[in-house]
Specification:
single chain; mainly alpha
Length: 71
């Protein structure tokens, strides 16, 4: 939590424990399932690009709320 405050990433009321790398994994699972079900998850596809870019930086180990600053 202190790191997030120093970086200005804290969002009040949101637990800061879900790393972007895990969010990326779950997003990929959701997109795969959408593909199987024939559902076009266009917003998820757009988010995927941002999460893949973030995964190549120090943001990969930060909480998902840091993506507000990344994008």
């Amino acid at each position: 939590p202190v790191l997030f405050k120093k970086l200005g990433l804290a969002i009040p009321g949101i637990a800061q424990r879900f790393k972007n790398t895990l969010a990326l994994k779950d997003l990929k699972l959701a997109l795969d399932q959408g593909s199987i079900e024939g559902v076009d998850l266009s917003t998820g596809k757009s988010a995927l690009k941002s999460y893949e870019e973030a995964d190549k930086t120090n943001y990969k180990d930060l909480d998902w709320t840091s993506m507000f600053n990344f994008i």
